[in-house]
Write the structure tokens for this entry.
Amino acid sequence: MENFKKFIEKNREKIQKGAFILGGIILCIIVIFVIVMLIVGRKISYPKLEEKLINATEQYLMDNLDYRPSASKPEITVDANTLITAKYIKELRKYVKDTCSATIKVKYATEGLEYQAFLDCDNFQTKTFNSILKEDNKKTSQTGEGVYNLNDYSVFRGQDPHNYVSFANMMWRIVKYNDKEIRLILDNKNTEMYEAFPDIEYEGVWDDRYNSETESRNGVNNFSLSIVFDRLRQMYNGTLVDYQDYLTPYNLCVGKRDEADGNKAGNQECTELISNQYYGLLPVYDYLNASLSNLCTTTSNPECQNYNYLNNEEDSWWTMTPNSKDTYSVYYVNPMGQIDTGYGDDFGAYRIVIALKGNVLYDSGKGTLEEPYVIR
């Protein structure tokens, strides 16, 4: 202990000098760290920059009414350089640590203008979900599972194509898509939905009203007046209405179909339409098209269960299509995946069908069950 004190006394000046230098180094490190954090802290994410561009464009068009889109000029494109020059936004490199250009598309709609910003950076590009689907399915299939061009749509077919989508906290499968919409059907099991909304009925009758033909409450096979249409409304309002900005209305093909009809383009189903709806069920011809079996040409052929991702092999579930032979029977898919007909008051699951807008933005995913597509 005595020797230690003598050492301290003898080297006090050196120790003080060393401590001063060490303190200076630590202070410099802190200053540099603060400066770096300030610089990095000013940077924002790419989606936040997209929001800034949209906000700037909204203000720009409020100040320049002549440039706004209209019914006669339904879409315009505003370049980010226009906003920068007019001082509605700073240079983009001030916001992100990247070299970027950007355009903002503005579309006229009866309910208001629709804005969408597209970034083109060295390390990031804004992409629509539709463009990703086209990239992932560049080669349309002719024999195996994947995407086929049918009836003005790109249609998913086969046992397990990469068409899973996670949306609104539920799992979906893409049935078909084109530039205007991406049609989704609820996957066969969505326990998250059941747990979040226990009071909503996700399975039950198609219709159970009194039918004069059977003289019983077997239901009337008119979809527009059916119980199931009302149940779908409850499901939509209870689970999906908060996501309506991502959705587009579409026309429901609710016409009746003959059991012997071999047409797979919806010629019978689409003779009767309910226009501009946000929800429906699957028309039976879409189930036929999902199968890769060449023998799946009519609803009565059991081959339609084969090579068909819509066959969940667990529950019976309703289609939207009535049988044309009577006023009470409806097509459904049984647990084996075969198309069958039954009374409207039979029991089946409701696999709601919705349509995403064709220009919704892609976030992540590969379309597999493990890595489903996610939009933003």
